[in-house]
Amino acid sequence: KAGVTQTPRYLIKTRGQQVTLSCSPISGHRSVSWYQQTPGQGLQFLFEYFSETQRNKGNFPGRFSGRQFSNSRSEMNVSTLELGDSALYLCASSFGDRLQETQYFGPGTRLLVL
Amino acid sequence: GDSVTQMEGPVTLSEEAFLTINCTYTATGYPSLFWYVQYPGEGLQLLLKATKADDKGSNKGFEATYRKETTSFHLEKGSVQVSDSAVYFCALSSNAGGTSYGKLTFGQGTILTVHP
Question: Between vectors from CA A29 to CA A28 and to CA A31, what angle results, nearest 5°?
Answer without folding.
Answer: 155
